[in-house]
Amino acid sequence: MATIAPGDLVALADEEGGRTLVRAQGGAQKLRGVGILAGERLVGLAWGDVLTHGSKTLRLLKPGVADLTAGLARKAQIVLPKDASRILFECDVRAGSRVVEAGIGSGALTTALAWAVAPTGRVFTYEIRPDFIDWARRNLEESGLAPLVEVKEGDITKGVQERDVDAVVLDVPNPWDAVPAAREALRGDGHFCAYSPLVSQVELTHKALREHGFHDLRTLEIIERRWTVGERGSRPDHEMLGHTAWLTFARKGV
Ligand code: SAH
């Protein structure tokens, strides 16, 4: 049976679906949603085993991409798995893809992109704020995905150095200003995506995309409704996340 080695990253899964990431090393540390736990206590336990910690029952899981993105330490609003997964699918991001992204924020979307392009692809991430670069880099190093990501301090609207990339994915307040740079960077039929919380952003982005010869423009929102499933009946959860952002997709054309 495979067991947890010193230094492994472990997702502690509680019974309510919560996840906390911890490294199997070192002494007592305070963990959000878990309390005080010594990482070294996990060494030698089996993946999938149960750890009883105070009143909690925690399942020990090898972190997947959803755990890595949702469980990371965040500063700005992050792109959640419901949106990140659709971005990967629509932009056809896969092993070997080269993707340009902006901005990095806490690195949640970067994590999903890096996970998808591994082991031979690359993510080039533009970010104007050095403090976010430092923060996100730490998150990427934690998850082991940092070698797949090239972080560049710079304004994406001022242009990008990469050429012939497969996709450009934007989570910046003014994606329409970055459309010319995206056009230059993309391969002939490359994918464009903008993640925009406001519909005014969507309208301006569509206008810029049309002006710069993009086609196949689509905007959608992902509405996710969780359910509570019980032995005596099941129902949708009472609370639901009402809004994150609209996803706008387009293809470059020659
Ligand atoms: N997608 C990220 C969150 C990004 S928040 C995540 O999932 O964690 C938006 C980020 O864009 C901020 O860090 C901000 O500093 C950066 N940003 C804003 N305008 C930018 C620009 N023109 N070029 C590069 N980065 C920019």
Question: What's the level 1 CATH class of the largest domain?
Answer: Alpha Beta
Number of structural domains? 2
Query: Helix- and strand-based class?
Result: alpha/beta
Indicate the proportion of strand residues: 25-35%
Say what oligomer this is. Answer: single chain
Q: How many beta-strand elements?
A: 15
**Order of strands side by side in the largest beta sheet?**
9-8-7-10-11-15-12
Q: Indicate the CATH topology of the largest domain.
A: Rossmann fold
What is the ordering of alpha helices and beta strands? EEEEEEHHEHEHEEHEHEEEE
Inertia-based shape: globular
Mean pLDDT: 95
Largest sheet: 7 strands, mixed
Radius of gyration: 20 Å
Distance between the termini: 53 Å
Which ions and ligands are bound to the chains?
Answer: S-adenosyl-L-homocysteine
Helicity range of the residues? 10-25%
